[in-house]
Amino acid sequence: MKKIFYLTLLVSIFTINNIFANNDEQVKIWEAKLTIPTYAVGAPEKAPSFERNFAFQRAKRGVYPYAMNDNITNDKSDKEYKALYLENEYVKLCVLPEIGGRLLYAIDKTNNYDIFYHQHVIKPSNVGMTGAWISGGVEYNVFHHHRASSQLPVDYKLVDNGDGSKTIWVGETEPRQRMSWTIGLTLYPGKSYIEVSGRLINQTQNTNSFLYWSNVSTSVNKDYQIYFPQSTEFGVYHAKNSFCHWPKTHEFFDKKQHYLDNVDASWWKNHPDPVSIFNFNTKEDYLAGYDHGKQAGTMLCGDHNIVKGGKFWLWGPGKYGAMWDCKVLTDNDGPYCELMVGAYSDNQPDYSWINPYEVKTFTKYWYGIRDIDGVKAGNERAALNIEVKDKDKVFFGANATEKIQNAKIILRNGDKIVFEKVIDIAPDIPFTHEITLAKVKAIDLKLSFEDNTGCELASFQPVVKDQNKPLPETVKPPKKPSEIGSTEECYLTGLRSRQF
After folding, report:
1. CA distance from start to end of the chain
2. Distance CA 412, CA 386 (A)
3. DSSP code for 204
């Protein structure tokens, strides 16, 4: 009996020690209060606004049954908010259900980098569909851009999924069309990515139009660079009415002469005025931003057949932009850029139909990247970069979103393997290396990252782009009914207009 007792005690001690040893790997979820300095918004307009004789984000601004909420004040005081938290060993994030379910911040715990623009004050301005709107974090634009309820409380639920992962769900039923949406933010044990699950639900008997974009903000400065997929040949403006070459522009873009001057549009500092650029006809699964000064950045990825759109919007470092993102919308948090990723849409506005009782779903993955000097390829498991420096120096690196032992990095120059190494890698243990290759050409290099079974997690090989390739044809506004040649075309034109 003594032997059984001591054996049981030993097993219990081992179990308890093991629980505490692995405690940091568990996903935690909780609700608490958070006090944030807040500028008050006055009482909303009482009279209903059925129609407005101007557009908002290039669509009709009929907001009823919402009230116009545009009585912005300069009255600042501390305000207590309900905050939802989710954390594992690599990421900690915070959601504000009382402000549209906005993801306020997400911290990469491996280097203390704010993956998204961390706003430390709630400072609304008259930007949203109903007026008051704040910058920072992540806003869910559904079923319209800067949706009418982005400053209003939404429903929420904290869920333990039973497999070690946990999810914060936020959502609402939108009263204008009586459709519903939910967004789930999930953390898994041992993973550095945030899994973003979306459900867009038409529970009505009507065929409705919808649009979805995740408005992801990041902090920017002169060292900040935006990375579209390497196959991207062109950037495009709203409504596809203006195109430019990517990343070097040499044409009028959005009626701005600035882009005639062979501008590298991937750098924030090279945009003196506010601008939007969408990646056109994307064939890869990511969009990223990277701060070369901090050697850290943000990766956004998802199946490009569904997560179709990628875009950035910025105010720019000029006087007008600096007034907005350094003064009007914040007190001390500085300039930001919006890295937007769509679903079922590759432009704004670009509405689609959602049928009666139809549910549209999507999945995205967001995570912090570090110490690899930029991004050339990425997915939910890994991010890669490779740079040729000083003609014969080749720098390359990899990030992984989980611990992988005995992984393999392979660099090829043409058909020849010039570097191969077995490594241990993790979100807090990036891999970087530099080698010398005489007379090397970037186009001949291929970087591969494999797991310990030989499965390729990510790879990159440069593509040749013709910077003088003719620009795609712009989308033309619809003709007047009297100028349309057939009844069918007239009907289809009217149907498309009705989507907006």
Report:
1. 78
2. 12
3. S
Length, in residues, of the chain: 500
Give the pLDDT confidence of 75-125 residue by residue, as tens digits. 999 999 999 999 999 999 999 999 999 999 999 999 999 999 999 999 999
Residue 243 pairs with which residues in a beta bridge?
A: 236
Please say if the pLDDT value at position 356 is more than 50.
yes
Please give the Cα distance from 193 to 216 (Å, whole number): 15
Contacts of 149 (CB under 8 A, 6+ apart): 66, 100, 172, 174
Which of 267, 340, 360, 345 has the alpha carbon at shortest distance from 300? 340
CB 434 within 8 A of CB 395: yes
DSSP label of 476: P
Beta-carbon neighbour count of residue 128 at 10 Å?
24
Residue 473 DSSP symbol: P
Question: E strand or H helix at 489, and its extent?
Answer: helix 487-499
Contact 269, 291 (CB under 8 A): no
Which are the contacts of 61, defined by CB distance < 8 A and separation ≥ 6?
Answer: 49, 51, 52, 54, 55, 129
What does the pLDDT average to over 256-280? 96
Asked whether 379 and 204 are in contact (CB, 8 A), the reply is: no
In the β-sheet with 416-425, what is the strand arrangement from edge to edge?
A: 416-425, 404-413, 445-450, 456-460
CA-CA distance, 496 to 500, in Å (whole number)? 7
Separation in Å, CA 256 to CA 58, 241, 278: 19, 13, 16
Spatial contact of 326 and 172, defined as CB atoms under 8 Å apart: no
Instruction: Kindly state the average pLDDT of the residues 42-58.
Output: 76
What pLDDT score was predicted for residue 3? 52
How many Å separate Cα 467 from the centre of its chain? 27
Q: How far apart are CA 128 and CA 175, in angstroms?
A: 17
Place of tokens 């875009």: 311
Cis, bond preceding 50 (omega within 30 deg of 0): no
DSSP states of 322-335: HHIIIIIS-SSS--
Sign of CA dihedral 431, 435, 437, 442: positive
- 340-369: string of b/e by CB count within 10 Å (b at 16+)? bbbbbbbbbbbbeebeeeeebebbbbbbbb
Residue 243 has a CB neighbour count (10 Å cut-off) of 24
**DSSP letter string, 35-91:** EEEEEEE-PPPSS-----SSEETTEE---TTSPPB--EEEEEEEEEEEEEEEE-SSE
Residue 282 burial (C-beta neighbours within 10 Å; 0-12, 13-18, 19+):
buried
CA distance 403 to 131: 45
Token pair recorded at residue 261: 């001057």
Instruction: Report the distance separating Cα 325 and Cα 153, nearest Å.
Output: 24
pTM: 0.92
